[in-house]
Amino acid sequence: MKRFQSTAAALAEQATQLLRLAETDEGVKAALGLVQAADPGWGAVYDVLKFVEGTAVAHNRKTKIKKYRGTASWYRHLGEPKRPALPADPPTLAQAREYAFGLLQEWLDLRLKP
Length: 114
Hints:
Layout (H helix, E strand, L loop, with lengths): L7 H17 L1 H8 L8 H11 L9 H15 L16 H20 L2
């Protein structure tokens, strides 16, 4: 998986490209809207996984996405008497963040390709 380059100049250029693209691409605009909190919680993880579900980056990852989204849903709905069961061997919040936002990064990388 290609990750954003680590130099400040490269990051600035990629951010500029994404912001320009968001002006005309509603999908990119929505994706960038998911990246708002410095410390995203389970709700953000759920929203990101729901966003990438059914896209090219989700191909061959449906089982893991379902497990992580199920875990996020369980925590997101704490206090509800009829919430779904927590999946077996659930990921930690840190693991879920890394996975979900990694998929979102892949999706954004695909949108930047000409």
